[in-house]
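are you around this afternoon, could really use another pair of eyes. what follows is a protein written twice so to speak, once as letters and once as structure tokens for the fold. i want to understand how the tokens follow from the sequence so walk me through it. anything you notice is useful, everything is just below.
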Amino acid sequence: MNITGQLEYITFRNFENHYTIARMRTDDTGSLITVVGYLPGAEPGETIRVSGGWETHSRFGEQFKADGFEVLLPDAVDGIRKYLTSGFIRGIGPKIVARIVDRFQEQTLTVIENEPGRLTEVSGIGKKTATKINNAWRQHHAVRGLMRFLRENGLPASYCGRILKLYGDNAVEILTGNPYRIALDWRGIGFKIADAIAVKQGMAKDDPTRVKACLLHLVSADAEDGHTLTEAENLCGRCVSVFEASPEPVADALAQLCDEGELVTETDLIPTGGEAVYLKSIHEAETGIARRLAALQTIPMPPVTMDSDRIDAEIVKKLAIQLSEEQREVLESLLNYRVAVLTGGPGTGKTTLIRSLNAIHETRGARILLAAPTGRAAKRLSEISGRPAATLHRLLRYNLQTGLFDKNRDDPLEADVVIIDEASMVDTLLMYHLLEAIHLETAILFVGDVYQLPPVGPGNVLADLIKSGVIATFELTRIFRQARKSPIITNAHRVRMGKPLHLDPPSDIDALTEFYFIKTANPSAAAVTIAQMCAERIPERFHLDPVRDIQVITPMHKGDAGTINLNRVLQRRLNHQAGRSGRSQGAFHAGDKVMHLKNNYQKDVFNGDIGTVEAIDGKSGGIAVNYDGRTIGYDTAELDELTLAYAISVHKSQGSEYPAVILPLFTQHYALLQRNLLYTAITRGKQLVVIVGSTRAIDIALANDKPHHRLTGLARRLKCIDVLKH
């Protein structure tokens, strides 16, 4: 069903995905109707044709749900005048529009598009303004063209905003010339879009271009899932299933991709004896890690002889702390290894050992650098060590112009000792760049808890270093007396061992202990309970700030107990600015707790940084976010770098600690209920941990000690470290 009419005004627009609620006056009856759907670029004053159907909303009544739309350009003078004053050319008011239309009449739009230089014939318009008008027209035209392209290829309008951000004004030209480019640029959904376009254009199901794109998509998807390699037979089998094709074209396409340098194959890495397939960049990184570690281990450390008495004397004098026998032994050993791993659970003294190691190196005049994968982890490392600490990206000096790290083998880090905390979060690619920047006479220590979740990116480097048996590894096992009194630490270690948790009586929060379990089998009811705890019960009893000090951590994004729903519920409960006129921008409101989702070196804001929405620009749609006293601006095109952070995923919480943690845990999270996930979530809390959910979900997580296995070749490479050459 199609309806044509004039867009009167926009009631709501999400600038992240362009979902819009608008009022439109229909041409046939002149009635004012509500239109909902993805309407990127549609502005008040435009005549549009929407396709879709009627639906009845439980709250707002009858509305037209648009599956697609197109802008109908006016040809009459009055229509052109109204169209140009609709607002898509910012900064051009009605008076200038009137002069333009008076000068060019029905040819106005043709002049703007094809002869923008002629706009200077109009009084008050110079070259700069003429260019501005033409640029705005081209951008608006690109949206219309892309919407038409998506409609013709059977793709939803909701894809428009993301594609425009990827390719700008040339989106249609790029997608037509090489549909499969988007498969690499838009992980997850890109291949489906690309293949739909290719099929619509008549590409054969076994066309080599199509098969190669599928293979690259599958290997890239495996990397997104954390694998560094893919087993060749499995890869080809999946590709055959996608296209229902014969195996021969798939095998040929794989060989071509290897010849072209897109993929790399290697034998002797998979225990079953199959062939391993790598993306070129990941293969280079994994082999580079092994070679660099081999090179570092060939350079002997200057002998350091410090007996226990001398260590105690220096540490007690400098830090006023007493080391355990286990800590002293580990400390003596660490001083004599160029590459080493320090691991251990909470309460075992890793922090104390880092401080002690720093103190000894300082007395020897050594240059020390401390770093961690995320901004929050680096800040925490600095607080516990009393020394400056940086994110790895800042340490390696990412260069915006080149897209590379300035610190590398040619310009290594100026340090005698480098200590990396939360090393379990470092993926293969980042570890490669780090090791490339380590001088061969520098000692490096990786500190981390291997029982936590693996990195978000490909690989499981810390676990592979330990598994290889080649890198010196020291595990602290003794839990200190004070830590043993903590229910949080006690339960964390019970999770590591797969033992049942020690749980207080249900929901007895008056006792003011550290660890609670509130039993409920209903995720929807849990969302209400969690909101009440954040807003009232915990702040009142524990004197904690409901937004700054309390963090909800959940395994999933979807569902009643997922981040999406919990953020909506908590936003309404905790942010009284929500919904106030002039204080909102799409999903965000002034005062909201938000998280930055990807590294933005230009803004100096990184994945996982949490801040507060400070202000919203009602005209531009931009927002300002305060990160620990630094205010960072975002325009509308950058809002997809942010998400609400009242509730975050367990993965996003890694490297951080919070005064209070609330963890919803239900059987609907079944696919993610793993021991290391429960362990990671519990160890984020410093003063208080509250689990809300079912005992069945806890039991499932405790029993599941076989998390998703990552296919990597690093441990096997490291076992051959003696034969590797620098």
